[in-house]
Fold this protein.
Amino acid sequence: MPETNYNQEMAFFVDMQRCIGCHACEMACAECETNGQESMIHVNYVERAVSVQTTVQVCMHCENPACANVCPADAIHQDDFGVVHTANTSRCIGCSNCVLACPFGVPKKMEEAELMMKCNMCYDRTSAGKKPMCATVCPSQALYYGTKEEIERMRPNSVPVNSFVFGNQEVNTKVNIMMPKGTHQLIVD
Amino acid sequence: MAKLPIAADQIIEKYGPHKAYAPQAGFYGAHEPDKLVKTHCCYCGMQCGIQLKVKDNKVAGFEPWMEFPFNEGRLCPKGVERYLQNNHPDRLLNSLQRVEGKGFEAVSWERAMDKTINEINRIQREYGRDAFAMLSGVSLTNEKSYMIGKFARVALKTANLDYNGRLCMVSAGGGNKKAFGLDRSSNSWADLAYAEIIIVAGANISETFPTLTHYIWRARDNGAKLIVVDPRVIPLARTADLHLPIRPGGDSALFGAMLKILVDNDWLDHDFIENHTSGFQETIDAVKDYDLDWAEEHTGISKDKILEAATLWGKAKTSFLLHARGVEHHTKGVDNVLSCINLVLATGRIGKPYCGYGTITGQGNGQGGREHGHKCDQLPGNRDITNPEHRKYIAEVWGIEEKEMPGKGLTAYEQIEAIHRGEIKGMISICFNPLVSLPNNNFVRQALEKLEFYICIDSFLSETARHADIIMAGSLHEEEEGTVTTAEGRVVKINAAVSPPENARRDGEILMEIASRLGAGDKFNFANSEAIFNELRLASKGGTADYYGITYQKIVDNMGVFWPCPSLDHPGTPRLWEDRKFKTPDGKAHFNPVTYRPAAEVTDSAYPVVLTTGRVVSQYLSGTSTRRIGKLVDQYPEPLLEIHPKLAFQYGIKNRDLIKVKTRRGEAEFPAQVVETIREDTVFIPYHWGGKHAANQLTIGSLDPISKIPEFKVCACQLIPTGKMVSEDATEAAYQSQL
């Protein structure tokens, strides 16, 4: 990995309450030079028959990433900022271990390329001091990239949570989900 | 001879719409562009700042413009993908002429101009000057809007000029003028973020103005309550404090009932009403019988919700009321707007910090485009074409005799009716696609087919342009310099990023050459866009929409200037009415009595369901550009019929069933989307498509008596299941079948 210029205070925040389902993040993600015009973020209706609620699925950049841990080819790298990078093309063997291991269901195996791809948090932009494309364009700021102090000041009714419990497994992430005040941890099951 | 020269599918095969997913030359140039050009999105009235990447005179991508104060880099999907309209394979690179039985063939500018001038002269000689009409659009810059107003009156010498703002916000303009004497939203969006209570009525902000949602969420972070009035649970309504699911057509009943509650509870600003308004007593007399039972019956909203809304509004100290087409697209659009304004005036919450009111303009230059004189009844500076003093002033600016200036002409839909009657024989249009955007499409098509000569200036061969005798290859947004005025009244600068490709020309140059060939060249001798703007400044001076103090440099230096700005040392006016001096003759804000009346067409046993129309986030207006951008098409490929499960059950309709929708104007088939997020008595279809997918085959051409806006938002329909089902993967076939 080349030397980077990350601002170590910056973090990524997702606020599902604000999401208006517009898909601007997906389209902007595909414009980022990291991804080759493929979007690594996904917007979906929860249940369109009853609600217009949408969710944003983005790599959570786990502190101890299962995807990297299970990779038999050592193709997934985590950098000093905590970004878990997409599979190294020269190493990835397309085995899908990472796809199966991720508790958030994020990595996708691109069948045409026999390659795993996922969000790099716009490595080419964030490592140069810019914000990720998705969070930059998000018109409702359901996606925000900044410091914890900023988000706590701007959104006094919610708190960032980055601790998730899946069964017996606790996963801490670099990406935060904004939750009602008083929430400390999200228990998924 | 404005019938199609060949079958529509053959025209589509050659001229599209085709989907583009990447710049024609690939993404070459996006990584290392020659330059980044600061400009604005070409779509809605937010006019978000954006930087276009340019390589080899082509737009190759975009980079967020973080410093622009309104959007700070934020964009919606249309803004992200807008760069793909440039260098698109469907782009018209030559002017075209219609050849019977063969379609269209490229034609030289000389030939296109000769034929155009000959036909304009012939028609005006045979039938009179007003028999040649003009329609324009408000995606055009202020400079072009101004020049078109002058072009029609000075070069074409016709009274019949109107614009597609007639389908958008003219009801708001009519209401604003009656109440305030000036037509502009009262505040910058900055005030919105600090209001205690926000009412969003008939405005699907989350899909049509997505970057504005950030200001509403900021307000909610600051403790604001949000009330959304809409027949559908739009994304903004999902988390609102109060959603009022109004029956289409019930707006003035709701706002009238709320006014009655304000009066009953004395939630009024007596000082403001006494000293700065007129007409209060007549206005409250008009609603004295509007009790909650009556309101519930006429709005379809429960009594307790209406009472709660009035209580939230009445008790607040600061507030913002916003509306858009859901309130304005009615035969009583002006009444609806005035009933909103009455709520604002009764509480005196205007002209103060964090207190505001306004319409949200749907088109890119919906605000500026309604100020500079391409409305049939208007001259630059928002002057009145029937006012002798206003006429005299503009005639002097234009260097003509006042008596030479035509009078008030027909509005857009009235022009179509006049073509039908045989009174208008020729037309020139620019940036207007009435075959998709006007109601009662089949009637519009019949009218186009009756024209003896039709010229269209456009960048793509739109549904309407297919009927033209001559199509002049005009310019895209990024190919011409100018200004636009955003929905908050901020005049911003559009910078040309590229020049028109091959034999396409800038719209302004085309109009100037036609004017010259019609013998008015000395009146259109503009060296560049700034020269047009400088004449516009002078023409607007002293008018209610006064731009005199705004210069290109001032806009660039300040990233926009709010009008009115009457002198060069004036900073602009982000917040109106702080001085309490309204622009009405008596200097007061006017209450206006509103008596509820039903829609032009109500449901009955033959047509028992309410049909309403609107937009989706990935498409813009008639879709001339956005239906050519691959990812925007894929996001919402075809119009769907939104229907509530209970209504669907009555008809045995399931999700994705193909439903024939029939009204007294026409019929069309749409896949059903069965969702609980719409009223049980109402169905919704988005209107961005033409041909057999056009919602506007069904809508009604009834007009508001003041604004002459058509009633897009309510008509009566039948639902007839076809017994067919449309699979999700049939959408590509639907796109291909655009006739």
User: Anything to note?
Assistant: Residues 148-154 of chain A form the longest helix (7 residues). The two ends of chain A are 37 Å apart (CA to CA). Helices of chain A lie at 24-29, 66-69, 97-101, 123-126, 133-137, 148-154. Chain A touches chain B through 34 residues (CB under 8 Å).
